[in-house]
Amino acid sequence: MKIGTIGTGIIVEEFLNGVKEAENVECIAVYSRKEDTARALADKYNVKKIYTDCNDLFKDEDVNFIYIASPNSMHYEYALKALQNGKNVICEKPFTSTVEEAKALITLAKEKSLFLFEAITTIHLPNYNKIKEKIELLGKLKLVQCNFSQYSSRYDKFLAGEITNVFNPEFSGGALQDINIYNLHFVTGLFGKGEVVNYTANIAENGIDTSGIVTLKYEDFVCQCAGAKDSNSPSFAIIQGTKGYIKLNGSINQCSSFEIEVGGRLETYNEQQFSNRMVYEIIDFNDIYHSGDLKKCHQLLEHSLRVVETVVTARKEAGIVFPADKKQLNYFFN
Question: Which terminal residue of the chain, N or C, has fewer Cβ atoms less than 10 Å from its own Cβ?
C-alpha cells in the first residue's frame, strides 16, 4: 500500500505512526491546502511528496490509496474524487454525513472494483474480537451500557463564541458523530442494528449536540450509548447477561483489556501488543488489499452502512440537521 494523506490533524499523525508499525505499507505523499503545513508534516514523517492541490494527489500514479482525515462534511467529496480517479480509499470515521452519501460511495467502489474502508479502530482490535467469542457465555443478554466521554479542548472556545469544526453543523460535527459513534460501531458490530433508535441530546443554540445518549432496543435486550464532549467520565462498556457480564476497561476506541465474570469466576483478557490503536486496522486493510479480498471489504462496508443508518436515524430523531441532508447527489458521474 502506497498512501497519500488528506488532512494534517492529530489523527493523521497517529495514523502515520501506525503505518510505521505495519509491513508493506508506506505513506509517500501528503496533501494540505497550505504548503507550510504539508511540508511540516512531510518532514516529520520523512514523506517525499507534498501537494497543495488534491487533484494533483489523485493523479499521482505512485499513490494507490488515499487516507482521508478532513472535516467530517468533506469525507464524501474527497472519497468520491479519489474513487473517480481510480484510487482505493481509507476514510476516517464518521464514514459519511448521510446514508445517501454512504450508498453512493459504496456503489461507485463496487463498480470500479476498488477498496473502500472506514478507519474505525474498534472493530479491528484483537480484544474486541475476543469479546465477540466470549459473549455466548453470558447467557441471555439483558443490558448493554457504553460511555465514551472526553471534555473537549475546543469546548471552552465554543462557550466563548468560537465555533470550531467539531461543534459546527456546517461541518457535520457534534458528539454523536465525533465520539459516540465509537460506541455505535462497538454494539452494531456485536449485535447488528437496533430495532428502535432514540437519541436524547444536550443541544446548543447553534443546533449541535455536545453530549447525549443513544438508546437501542433489540428483541431481547436494551442498549444505551453515552457520548460527551462537554463533560468527562470514566469510559467503559458493560454487557450483562443472565449468566454473567463482560466489562471493557477504558475507552471503547482502544479496547485495552476486558474482564468476564461467569459463575463467580473472573478472568481478565488483553491480547493486544501494539500501543497504537490504529496499527490493527492498517494491518487488516493491507491484508485485505494484497489478498484481493473484495468480499471482506464489502462486508466491512455493510457494517459501516448499518452504523451510518443508525447515526442518521438518531441524529434526525433529535432534530439535528446538517447541510448535507439537503444536498442532491449526482451519483454516477464518470
Answer: C
In terms of Cα–Cα distance, which of 217, 218, 200 is closest to 209?
A: 200
Amino acid at 257: S
Q: Please compute the mean of the pLDDT values over residues 279-302 and round it to a whole number.
A: 98
pLDDT per position as a tens digit, 211-266:
999 999 999 999 999 999 999 999 999 999 999 999 999 899 999 999 999 999 99
Q: Classify 42 as helix, strand or coil.
A: helix
Domain end (from 115, 141, 162): 115
- HEC string of 169-222 equals HHHCCCHHHHHHHHHHHHHHHHHCCCCEEEEEEEECCCCCEEEEEEEEECCCCE
Do residues 320 and 176 make contact, with C-beta atoms less than 8 angstroms apart?
Answer: yes
Choosing from 71, 89, 115, the residue where a domain stops is 115
Torsion angle (degrees, nearest 10) of CA 30, 34, 39, 45:
-40
Concatenating the DSSP letter of every residue in 59-110 gives: H-TT--EEEE-S-GGGHHHHHHHHHHTT-EEEEESS--SSHHHHHHHHHHHH
Give residue 112's pLDDT.
98
Helix (H, G, I), strand (E, B) or coil at 244: strand
pLDDT at 333 over 50: no
Task: Please state the domain count of the chain.
Answer: 2
Give the CA angle between residues 26, 125, 71 to the nearest 5°: 60
Q: What is the DSSP track for 270-319?
A: -----SSTTHHHHHHHHHHHHHT-HHHHHHHHHHHHHHHHHHHHHHHHTT
